[in-house]
Amino acid sequence: MRIIRDPTELRRQVAESRRRGESVGLVPTMGALHEGHLSLIRAARDENDLVVVSIFVNPKQFGPGEDFDAYPRDEERDFEFAKDAGTDVLYAPDASVMYPEDFATTVAVAGLTEVLCGSPQSRGSGHFRGVTTVVCKLLIASAPDRAYFGQKDAQQVAVIKRMVRDLDMGVEIRVMPIVREPDGLAMSSRNAYLDVEQRKLASHISRALRVAEQELEKGAEIGPALDAASNVLAEAGLSPEYLEARDPDSLEPVDHLDRRPVLFAVAVGVGPARLIDNFIFDPLRQRSAQKVPAMQGGSTR
Ligand code: AMP
Questions:
Q1: CA 172, CA 259: separation in Å to the nearest integer?
Q2: Ligand 1 pocket check: which of 33, 128, 135, 149 to mutate, most ligand atoms within 8 Å of Cβ?
C-alpha cells in the first residue's frame, strides 16, 4: 500500500494505472476506520483493479461548535486496517494541501442539502457544502470509475449522486448497506464518544426504526409508522432532532405510501454524540431494501 499526501502525486499514480488499462475505485473516509468503512473498501477491492482510500477529516464539513477537534484520529491504526482490507493507495492529504490559505471555491447542491441534517435546526446546509466541495476535489484528483459510499449517510448519498449527475462527472456511485453492531446500532466513528449508559441508550435508535419498519410491513401508513418509532424513542427518553419520511432521491417529504420507495431517516443526540440512522421501505415488495436487524445480545463495546 502506497501512502500519498499530495494530489499531483495521486493523479500521477492513477494515470499510471490507467495506462495499464486498470479500473479505479475511490473510498472517501474521515478515518477512525470501522467495519462500515472496511465494507466499502472490500467492495471497491472486488470491483476495481486499483483501490484508492482517502482519509481526511474535512474541516469544511464541521460547523462552529461541532466536534472537529474531538473527532477520533489514529493514522497508524487506520493505515493497518486499510491495508488489510485491500487498499492500494492511501490518500491522506494535510488540510493545508487541501485548502491553501487563499482557497476560494465551493461546490454547492441546492435544495436537498437544506432539509434533514441540512436544516438550520440541524447541522445546516454548510455541512453539505463542505462535503460536496471535498468529495468533488477527491473525485477530480483520483478520477475513479466508481466511488463508494455508505447508505448510513442516506442524505449524503442523495446529495453526491445529484452533484455527480449535475456536473457530468461520469463516476458510478456505489452505495453499500449499513453495517451495524450486534444490537443494531449503526456503526459510526462517533459511537466512540458514548459512555456505557449512553451506548445502551443509543441502541433504541435502530430499535425505533425497526418498530416503524414492522408497522409498515403489517400494512401501516407512514404517519402511524413514524408515531410508533417516535414512541420508542420517547420511552427511552430520547428526543430526535428529526424523524421523517422522504423520497430517497429528491428528499422531498412523503406523507403517503404509493409505489415508490420511502426513506425513513432519524437523527438523535445521545450525550455528546449526534447519531443518524435510516432504512428504505419499498411498498411494492412490502419490505425494506435492507432490514433493520433484530437485536442480537449486547453491544461489542
Ligand atoms: P465517514 O468516515 O464517517 O465520513 O464515512 C465514510 C464513508 O463510510 C461514508 O460513505 C459513510 O456513509 C460510510 N459509512 C460510515 N458508517 C457506515 C456504516 N455503519 N455502514 C456502512 N457505511 C458506513
A1: 26
A2: 149
